[in-house]
Amino acid sequence: MLHTVNKSPFEHSALETCLRYARQGAAVLLIEDGVYAAARDTAVSKQVEEALKKVSIYALEADLAARGMRNRVIDGVRLVDYEGFVDLVVEHNAVQSWL
Amino acid sequence: MLHTVNKSPFEHSALETCLRYARQGAAVLLIEDGVYAAARDTAVSKQVEEALKKVSIYALEADLAARGMRNRVIDGVRLVDYEGFVDLVVEHNAVQSWL
Amino acid sequence: MDEATEGGAVKRFLYVNRKAPYGTIYALESLEVVLIGAAFDQDVSLAFVGDGVYQLTKGQDTKALEVKNFSPTFRALDDYDINKIYVDADALRARGLTEADLVIPVEVVSTERMAQIMEGQDVILSF
Amino acid sequence: MDEATEGGAVKRFLYVNRKAPYGTIYALESLEVVLIGAAFDQDVSLAFVGDGVYQLTKGQDTKALEVKNFSPTFRALDDYDINKIYVDADALRARGLTEADLVIPVEVVSTERMAQIMEGQDVILSF
Amino acid sequence: MKLGILVNEGPYTHQASDTAYQFAKAALAKGHEIYRVFFYHDGVNNGTRLTVPPQDDRNIVKRWSELAAEHKLDLVLCIAAAQRRGLMDKNEAKRHGKDTDNLAAGFRISGLGQLIETGIQSDRLVVFGD
Amino acid sequence: MKLGILVNEGPYTHQASDTAYQFAKAALAKGHEIYRVFFYHDGVNNGTRLTVPPQDDRNIVKRWSELAAEHKLDLVLCIAAAQRRGLMDKNEAKRHGKDTDNLAAGFRISGLGQLIETGIQSDRLVVFGD
């Protein structure tokens, strides 16, 4: 299953809730304000690094770049463009948006 | 100063941020989904009870009733109607809405 | 993929409800989708997680807000043969609620069980 | 209440910025208020708390989103004599940011100091 | 006392416009003056005359129009926000070559300066939003 | 593959409509089919022809209309959500005694059943919202 998260982890519970339900081997795609979770050395980066042991984490490059976070990404978080987003949707059986 | 909070404390950081900035003697009015913070025996009720030592906390009765929370309110949280809301605005020098 | 999905006849639809009622309209409008969707004879489940559990609380009285109390409508779901209604146990507990506080009978499930339920769906509508 | 407010001549306006840019329009439209407001010769301060600090980060490149990068506009604030710009120290720290990561010089303040600043205002516009 | 109100969200989706309306009504009932209600961001969507809410629901737009008529309220939509979101009066429609406008009775469209003015002229400004 | 898209927020205020548009464009570029784009909640506000965004900004509504024309996309606004928020086509305007409609080119208004159908007929449904 592919999960998408579009909220900042500092202001909303969406990422935390998503990670509680995401099962071993699932993919999590960070988009829009959700990409702030992909940044290194923040109050939530440990939580994201821990989650990487269980799930694959992707971040939308256009959203990272817009927010000046393109060069701050945690090791192991993979960047995708919109076509990569489409590929992730195609590769997984269903998509759960954590709005 | 009067602070208003309209977000659920379980999903958003608004209440927590508000309580960090609210100073001794300030008033906090919970409205809309913010009234869930006024309920007893929840994961955030201790935080609210602690805050009562520093600030006055009010909750909009119409919003509590709509959500079935009218009879679950923490001791010390005072209920107001819309006219009471107006009075709080008048009594304080400025209003800060934590949206 | 099982036969049903392969044939395109019946799909497993999951509605994930995560928002409290009245502060925003998502809860009400989601329920409208569920009711319309009931006519399509799909395999429907509802999940209530996070603040979504507040949609089901007893004793809602919206008169002073001048909006419609839509919580009784959940009781109609059974008439539409929608009875797979899952509520996250942790979400209830964090909010000081129990099954007895809810307007309809539900299945209270663990996070792990809820995750399994989500995993088994074809279409997930989240609001 | 001081003389200025009594006379109605000059009020202390505080703009409280708490939302990240681009995910929603609040940050951009708030900045539009600040720029228009600059013509009114009031006593203006800007506070950046929580995700609001992200509005000020260097290196924003919005080309792939096809939206306008409005972060350079903050540099124009000084031309309008808006230079009381306060940033919450804890908000920066939690996000792994320092003053050096921001597009304009700001005053990084403690929570207590920010609370004082808020307390001293006549009009608080929060977005 | 003179009160100013800022509404940042549209009708129905968020409770902001409902709360602002109830607040305004209560303030008027207590004898206060509403200097202006300013609609910004999606708040401008409160000013469309094309809503047709379900019969058992409140009509948020009409309720504002009626309150304005009764109490001579000044209901102002921000012009820049309105342009982005498709709200216009007859003048704006003409100016932009549109074939129609959609503004409801009792609302007018004006600049952001009117919000600043509301802050200056009102004893209190209260913000309702998401 | 056949993809369905649900957009729950209006133009400009939330990024949802932008992301959905870029996703749709990328999917079409890769040779996928878009079964339907369904607009619900405030998403119906994407279908107004009365927006006039700033000249240096993207025109979100026009962009959807053009993508629809180019790829024969089916852009559907939920009728119940549209009624609450003031979006209507000529038929709806007539039926409700309104003097005008405001629907943009390439959009049509229909029932929620079309969303369920999108879920049934598409291989994947992707939701964009707040």
How would you describe the overall organization of this protein?
- The complex is a heterohexamer, with 2 copies of chain A (99 residues), 2 copies of chain C (127 residues) and 2 copies of chain E (130 residues).
- By secondary structure, chain A is of the alpha/beta class.
- Chain A has a single domain (2-98), classed as DsrEFH-like (Hypothetical Protein Ychn, Chain: A).
- Chain A is built from 4 helices and 5 strands; from the N terminus they run βαβαβαβαβ.
- Chain A has helices at residues 14-21, 45-51, 61-66, 82-91, and strands at residues 2-5, 27-30, 56-60, 78-80, 95-98.
- A 5-stranded parallel beta sheet of chain A has the order 4-3-2-1-5.
- Chain A is globular, with a radius of gyration of 12 Å.
- In chain A, 59% of the residues are buried.
- The mean pLDDT of chain A is 98.
- Chain C is α/β, with parallel strands linked by helices and 127 residues long.
- Chain C has one domain: DsrEFH-like (Hypothetical Protein Ychn, Chain: A).
- Chain C has helices at 3-7, 26-37, 89-94, 111-119; strands spanning 12-17, 43-48, 85-88, 107-109, 123-126.
- The longest helix of chain C is centred in the N-terminal third of the chain and has 12 residues, at 26-37.
- The two termini of chain C are 26 Å apart.
- Residues 1-7 of chain C have low confidence and may be disordered.
- With 130 residues, chain E is α/β, with parallel strands linked by helices.
- Chain E is built from 5 helices and 5 strands, in the order βαβαβααβαβ.
- The longest helix of chain E is centred in the N-terminal third of the chain and has 14 residues, at 16-29.
- The chains are: A alpha/beta (99), C alpha/beta (127), E alpha/beta (130).
- Chain E binds chain F through residues 10-13, 41-42, 45, 48-54, 57, 61, 80, 83-88, 92-93, 96, 98, 100-102, and chain F through 10-13, 41-42, 45, 48-54, 57, 61, 80, 83-88, 92-93, 96, 98, 100-102.
